[in-house]
Amino acid sequence: MDLAVNSLDSPISLSSIAERQDLSLGYMEQVFSVLRKAGLVNSIKGAQGGYVLADNPSNITVGDVLRALEGDLNVVDEEQEANEKSIEYCIKTMVWDKMNQSLNKVADSITLEDLVTQYQKLSNSWVHMYYI
After folding, report:
1. What would the DSSP string read from start to end of 11-32?
2. What was the pLDDT predicted at 113?
3. What is the pTM of this model?
4. How far is it, in rounded angstroms, from Cα 19 to Cα 124?
5. pLDDT digits (tens, 9 = 90+) for 40-79
6. Residue 58 pairs with which residues in a beta bridge?
7. How far apart are CA 91 and CA 119, in angstroms?
């Protein structure tokens, strides 16, 4: 999200993101390596290099980012096949599967553009104008 808010079509260094977000540079390098491999960001080499989003923020969802960093968005990993007449199967289909579907639907419905827009609204709402 920091990249979407601050890049404006020019590469952003990991050190500037790390500083703004109060995170270590080493951690940012790990995160951006994964995001680059997932095709969500591009790295630009050189003195004025850094990272840019690989696509428009309206085309990148929270689900895309979370899946790249965390894997499947399942509340419970149910690898085991359960008998269709068992309690486990009932719980799996009525609780876990529905929760997983809902989580994925929400994560895929929010784009980076949505987050940036909301952030800008929130950050501007605290600005007070005084006229004399």
Report:
1. -B-HHHHHHHHT--HHHHHHHH
2. 96
3. 0.83
4. 22
5. 999 999 888 899 999 999 999 999 999 999 999 988 876 6
6. none
7. 38
**Closest among 73, 1, 68 to 37, alpha carbons compared:** 68
How many CB atoms are located within 10 Å of the residue 65 CB?
21
Q: Count H helices, E strands: the chain?
A: 7, 2
What single-letter DSSP state applies at residue 46?
S
Long-range contacts of 52-56 (CB under 8 A, 24+ apart): 52/3, 52/7, 52/9, 52/10, 52/11, 52/12, 53/3, 53/4, 53/7, 53/112, 56/113
Alpha helix segments (H runs only) across 1-96: 2-6, 14-21, 25-37, 62-70, 87-91
The residue among 66, 72, 1 whose CA lies nearest residue 34 is: 66
Phi, psi of 105 (to 5 degrees): -60, -45
Give the count of beta carbons closer than 10 Å to the beta carbon of residue 18.
18
**How many other β-carbons are positioned within 10 Å of the β-carbon of residue 57?**
19
What pLDDT sits at residue 83? 76
